[in-house]
Amino acid sequence: MSFLNSMNISASALTAQRTRLDIISENIANIDTTRTEGGGPYRRKMVVFEPIGSGSFRSQLVTAMNKNSNAGVRISEIVEDERPFKSVYNPDHPDANEQGYVMMPNVDILKETIDSMSATRAYDANVTALNAIKLMAGRALEIGR
Questions:
Q1: Dihedral sign, CA of 107, 48, 19, 13?
Q2: Strands 45-52 and 72-80
Q3: What is the pLDDT of residues 69-88, one digit of tens each?
Q4: Could you report the per-residue pLDDT of 32-56, keeping only the tens digit for each?
Q5: What is the DSSP letter of 92?
Q6: DSSP per residue over 31-47, as a string?
């Protein structure tokens, strides 16, 4: 695997984690949204990753031998969390039902905070890997001098 393929792998992970952070930010921004275009409260969104270039061992081996490694990660889809909404007693709210309860989004700020910390750590790790690849490439070029 050449260093350019390694850079592509890290770059795909950086893009995926950035998108994950964007979705987490959207969830946090809509934590109190009780009315959406589709009707009802905002539903939490989650990012689903999938590997690039997955396949049989044989196909991976042939790809690696041809130095055409197609590896990394991509986002396969963004799904909505199907957990039930939170029911909060607030009779003064415009979206309250007859009993005074409002259906609030199924977004948990603690979970979103932990997910954002995880995405940030993964992003940082890929930046570190990318910097190591650049350093190795620079050192390899110095050997030729």
A1: positive
A2: antiparallel
A3: 667 888 999 999 999 999 99
A4: 999 999 888 999 999 999 888 766 6
A5: T
A6: TT----TTSSS---EEE
